Amino acid sequence: MKKFDLKGSIVAIVTPFKDNGEIDVDAFDQLIDWHLESGTNGLVVCGTTGETPALTGDEDAFLIERAVKKVAGRIPVIAGTGSNSTQECIKYTRKAEAIGVDAVLVVGPYYNKPTEKGMYMHFATVAEAVDVPIILYNVPGRTGSSISVDNAIKLANAFENIVGIKEASGDLSLFTELIARRPDNFLVYSGDDFLAASANVLGADGCISVIANVVPQQFAQLMNASLTGNVAELNTVFYKYRRLMDLMFIESNPIPVKTALAEMGKVNEVFRAPMCSMEENTKTALIEELKKLNII
């Protein structure tokens, strides 16, 4: 198994589309170049922010391979390979492993609502089937069920290739319990931009971020300040971008973040159904904040 010890700002990169709905490869490449120049520490491709539920399996594989080749080892590349079918999850994870990703991000099975036993069996079965490092992904607001702290710690202790968790429940107390109980070298990432700096001060390892798509250099600065205990810098950066963090979730992710990138000229304002363009009032609020911050 590859050694995996990534900390800091990890962008959950968007998937740009052309006006005809096809993947915009040039825009995707340019986004990756921008992150490499801006100090982003890691890249998640084919996550929620990448509109993966609306991508085909071939498109997933194409984006993962494109990212691995484009990054060329300069920062870690993590592929989202989760599914509500354990066997499908294994298939996606093996494909990403063969492409050469540094780790995979595996969301808790959605819709099925497995029991505690079923949740453990899902991740245990996947971990036994592959060697690639696995990051658990707890996002109950999307999946309808939770990866409990007990299960996360039990899995971390049982499987060497389960190396971390993205905790996106929005509950800071869960971060503290995970950090207090985790085994050595088990990474705890925030899946919530707003809580990430606070979680890092308490001992977390960084954030798999949405807002890093829009302000990659500044979010990397925030993560570094919070990881090194520079509270003055942390407060300066956090309060400057606090409102923008909120606006990234004023509608379902990734609608606001892609809209912001479109306003910045980075991508087209094109979504895969059932994602759609923003309502005028929320879009106006987002644009006003982008202008206030001199982003556009």
UniProtKB/TrEMBL annotation:
<dbReference type="InterPro" id="IPR002220">
    <property type="entry name" value="DapA-like"/>
</dbReference>
<keyword id="KW-0028">Amino-acid biosynthesis</keyword>
<feature type="active site" description="Proton donor/acceptor">
    <location>
        <position position="137"/>
    </location>
</feature>
<feature type="binding site">
    <location>
        <position position="49"/>
    </location>
    <ligand>
        <name>pyruvate</name>
    </ligand>
</feature>
<comment type="subunit">
    <text>Homotetramer; dimer of dimers.</text>
</comment>
<dbReference type="GO" id="GO:0019877">
    <property type="term" value="P:diaminopimelate biosynthetic process"/>
</dbReference>
<feature type="site" description="Part of a proton relay during catalysis">
    <location>
        <position position="111"/>
    </location>
</feature>
<dbReference type="GO" id="GO:0009089">
    <property type="term" value="P:lysine biosynthetic process via diaminopimelate"/>
</dbReference>
<keyword id="KW-0456">Lyase</keyword>
<keyword id="KW-0963">Cytoplasm</keyword>
<protein>
    <recommendedName>
        <fullName>4-hydroxy-tetrahydrodipicolinate synthase</fullName>
        <ecNumber>4.3.3.7</ecNumber>
    </recommendedName>
</protein>
<comment type="similarity">
    <text>Belongs to the DapA family.</text>
</comment>
<dbReference type="GO" id="GO:0008840">
    <property type="term" value="F:4-hydroxy-tetrahydrodipicolinate synthase activity"/>
</dbReference>
<keyword id="KW-0457">Lysine biosynthesis</keyword>
<keyword id="KW-0704">Schiff base</keyword>
<feature type="binding site">
    <location>
        <position position="208"/>
    </location>
    <ligand>
        <name>pyruvate</name>
    </ligand>
</feature>
<dbReference type="InterPro" id="IPR013785">
    <property type="entry name" value="Aldolase_TIM"/>
</dbReference>
<dbReference type="GO" id="GO:0005829">
    <property type="term" value="C:cytosol"/>
</dbReference>
<feature type="site" description="Part of a proton relay during catalysis">
    <location>
        <position position="48"/>
    </location>
</feature>
<comment type="function">
    <text>Catalyzes the condensation of (S)-aspartate-beta-semialdehyde [(S)-ASA] and pyruvate to 4-hydroxy-tetrahydrodipicolinate (HTPA).</text>
</comment>
<dbReference type="Pfam" id="PF00701">
    <property type="entry name" value="DHDPS"/>
</dbReference>
<comment type="pathway">
    <text>Amino-acid biosynthesis; L-lysine biosynthesis via DAP pathway; (S)-tetrahydrodipicolinate from L-aspartate: step 3/4.</text>
</comment>
<dbReference type="InterPro" id="IPR005263">
    <property type="entry name" value="DapA"/>
</dbReference>
<dbReference type="InterPro" id="IPR020625">
    <property type="entry name" value="Schiff_base-form_aldolases_AS"/>
</dbReference>
<feature type="active site" description="Schiff-base intermediate with substrate">
    <location>
        <position position="166"/>
    </location>
</feature>
<keyword id="KW-0220">Diaminopimelate biosynthesis</keyword>
